[in-house]
Design brief:
By secondary structure, the protein is of the alpha/beta class. The chain folds into three domains: 3-93, Arc Repressor Mutant, subunit A (Orthogonal Bundle); 99-166 and 274-302, D-Maltodextrin-Binding Protein, domain 2; 168-273, D-Maltodextrin-Binding Protein, domain 2. 40% of the residues lie in helices and 21% in strands. The protein has helices at 3-8, 11-23, 26-33, 37-51, 66-93, 113-123, 136-144, 207-219, 233-241, 286-298, and strands at residues 56-57, 63-64, 99-104, 128-133, 150-154, 162-176, 187-188, 197-200, 225-229, 247-250, 262-266, 272-280. The strands form three sheets. Strands 3, 4, 5, 6, 7, 10, 11 and 12 form an eight-stranded mixed β-sheet that branches. It has a two-stranded antiparallel ribbon with strand order 1-2. The chain starts with a helix and ends in a 12-residue tail after the last helix.
Length: 310
């Protein structure tokens, strides 16, 4: 069928056709549709002209032709798809449906974030929630490109295109190799690590985080002697477990039992690392608004807080 003919077939024509096909009687179909029989007959005749074939045999009784049987199957399927599409659009418009893509840094899974995502899925079961594990830098690029809707980033760099709200703050703790002389301490001053080899991120991977560690160490009177670089937190912890050096990691890593790694609380002001809830600087969709609302309910730092200036 030519495209211009398809444009002339309306959904009401298909509804009229289905009613007649199911009733196999023009009068009963007209009553079912709440219309007079002559206009119904005219619309069916018009549909037949557009299709180019008779859809019904009228005498001695109304029966579907082969063309009519094929169109009946297609019409039912099409109207169901339209109905489902409209329903999905309504749910998406109210935040109860649609797709929501969430980026997250791997280390955030050791915090309260999994509970937030679980609660969101329970509260909005019709939303297709898609999770993407990405580094903070990759999340920022994906967010600006529209590939993710929201990101949970650890120490994101300031970016005029991104709205960042502090969501979780946690102190650093010292991660020490198995059998280290300080491993049995409940707490320790950071300066006790001045002569230790360090395993750290390369600055190009996480500049804000790297700078935080350097500032903390300098405040304790030393510059860390970095002997090994690693681009992932789990790799850093694994290298500490292998005895290559010590490191400073977020306190939530104490939940991660890796070999014989010992985690020791730093005395005094050991510094903090922040996970930020990051979105584009535009009005959020209803689906995203639902996640933002729930996150602000669950995370104290976000309660009553407006968008961050960064």
């Amino acid at each position: 069928m030519k495209p211009e003919l398809l444009e002339r077939i309306e959904l009401r024509h298909l509804r009229y056709f289905i009613a007649v096909a199911e009733e196999l009687h023009f009068g009963r179909a007209a009553v079912r549709l709440g219309m007079a029989q002559p206009p119904l007959s005219q619309q069916i005749a018009r549909l037949e002209r557009l299709v180019g074939h008779a859809l019904f045999e009228r005498r001695p009784r109304v029966v579907l032709t082969e063309a009519g049987r094929v169109l009946l199957t297609a019409s039912r399927r099409l109207l169901l798809q339209v109905e489902q599409g409209v329903d999905a659009a309504r749910r998406a418009g109210s935040g109860e449906g649609g797709v929501l893509t969430v980026g997250f840094a791997a280390s955030t899974m050791l915090t309260v974030l999994p509970g937030v995502l679980r609660d969101y899925r329970d509260r909005h079961p019709a939303v297709d929630l898609r999770l993407r594990e990405m580094s903070t830098a990759a999340q920022a690029d994906a967010l600006k490109a529209g590939l993710i809707d929201v990101g949970f980033m650890r120490e994101p760099a300031a970016d005029a295109a991104i709205r960042a709200e502090p969501a979780v703050r946690e102190p650093f703790v010292a991660a020490l190799p198995p059998g280290h002389a300080l491993a049995g301490h409940a707490t320790l001053p950071l300066e006790r690590l001045a002569d230790e080899p360090f395993v750290l991120f390369p600055r190009r991977v996480a500049p804000t985080l790297y700078d935080q560690v350097i500032v903390l160490c300098r405040a304790a009177g030393f510059h860390p002697r970095q002997v090994q670089e690693a681009q992932e937190w789990l790799t850093i912890v694994g290298l500490v477990d292998a005895g290559l050096g010590v490191s400073l990691v977020p306190a939530s890593f104490q939940r991660l039992r890796w070999g014989g790694v010992a985690y020791v609380v730093l005395e005094g002001s050991g510094g903090q690392t922040t996970i930020a809830l990051c979105t584009r600087r535009e009005e959020p969709s209803p689906t995203l608004a639902g996640l933002l609302e729930l996150t602000r309910e669950r995370l104290p730092l976000l309660r009553g807080a407006g968008p961050a200036a960064s």
